[in-house]
Request: fold
Amino acid sequence: MATGRRQTTGMQKRSSTPAMVLVVNDNSDQLERLCAMLEGTGLNARGFKKAADALHAMDAERPPALIITDLCLPDLDGWQFSRLLRSAEYADYNQVPILVVSATFTGEEPKNIATALGVYAFLSSPIDNEDFIQQVLEILRGQRTPIPPRAVIIDSSKHLAALLSNAFTTEGFTVDTALTFNEADDALTTAAYDLAIIDSNLPDGSADTLLEKLNTMRPDCVCIMTSTGPTPELIMGWMHKGAAACVRKPFEPAYLLKLCDQARKERSLMRMEKLHKSIAIELDESRARFKALTNTESDAITMMDAGGTISFWNPAAARILGYEASEVIGKDLHRLLAPQKNLAEYNEAFEQFRTTGTCLKEHKTTEITVRRKDGREIQIELSLSSLELSDGRHLVGIIRDITDRRKAEEALRESEKNISSVLNSIDASVTSYSIKNNCYVYVSPSTERIYGRSLEECIRNKFTAIDHVHPDDLDILHDITTRMTANGSAEGECRIVKPDNSIVWLHAQVKLIRDENGQPDRIDRVLTDITSRKNLEIQLRKSEEQTGNILDQIEDVVMSGSIKEGTFFYLSPSFKTYFGSNIEEHQQNWHLWLESVHPDDLEQVFNAAINRT
Reply:
């Protein structure tokens, strides 16, 4: 077995030039970042995306001081790369330390497998910059070496146990020995072993029990059974319980070492295969989830590579843009979807992404025009993001058709314009006040005329109903507000005082609008100027008062009433003088005065009344 892994420090002293570190990672961003950190420390970093390219470029006369590799690589993965570096075919690089940086594999299992392959350190991405540099420098200074594999020799023969212990120690193992079942049981409980040599004939206990315990506690431990007379049945039983092989006593230590080396490599391969299968299952599940999500997504999801070629197209993209995936995969996206008038603009933006790997509109939502398969141009919302795949950077676009929304918005704007035109032409003051936002959302132009204040002043000062109400009408305003709060709407008449102290009579109609939770949200008001009507009413009352005063001075009896209703509207004061009766009683029943007429004159009075009508 190849050893000598602790000679790195001496290798570093060959030259005063900066130590050369070889980095293998198929992710461009990670590769660039790792190399930049190494060069920032004064090291000479060389980056490769493929392990095969790195092997081809390596010089046996000047091997790298350190190799940093990912595990998931194209064509030749990191496991295979590490095994080759420790193989006899690449003996010139057996002593070069290896540091694994993996974004795919995490946990103790891949770390243990990597250690078995001679890896010095294992880091899972995302890595801490300081920790990464510290580990690199420790390896280069010889302060960090591969953790030696640990073996336990369990054999009742003290001589054989010592012989095997020396042989495995020479090959770089840390070795413990146990001569009895109890000693072995204690050792398995207190230490974690990579290799166990178990004698089947222990004096104080069953070797099968130890084998089962190891298989339960440390399933990755390679167990080799030794026996003076193994039968096929015994060997098969041990294999079922986790043994990797069985050796018949007596045997040469060199033979056992070779068998152990082969068994450990096979176990590593099996564990790697298991890890690969696990990753493959996770990948398949991830793809299934991705497919389910993208297939049911209502927005179009597209992806194109650095050359502008479409590499992904979900069902929603087919529905929105008219092309099936089979029609567009491998086609130039801009030539397919960009209207001629926008093609130069879109190509210019994409050229920036192609050359720099970034996009000005990345992680932003923009509105653009695209052309469907049927030639119809539609408005879309486009959100862009980029990602790094094995074949380079790709640009992902999320597309939402907003054509119908734009039409609806335009229709709404037109409707609002029409409503505003109608409201603006109304003589009444129409206002809408947002309670939650403490501001007016609408004030009609007529408000300026009615209040005698500019719209800007009204809106800026957030005038309320109480601000300009005549002091004598505050109780009326309070009553209107109370009824609106209780019933949702109310109306009434009150006066306001304009800046020139003139009085305006208003008929107020108010409505309280509540939100979906029942909380007050808005107050809508329609205020109609009724000053002219009120002035006419005042004049009429004055005229009636003047007429009444004149009639009251006449000595003759003046009566006015309704024959149909049988009541008097007016009876002059002289009525009481002539008839000696209560005026109020006669107003309610005009037949009463007839009782005062002489019976011989009744017919004449009736005829006169009828002729008058």
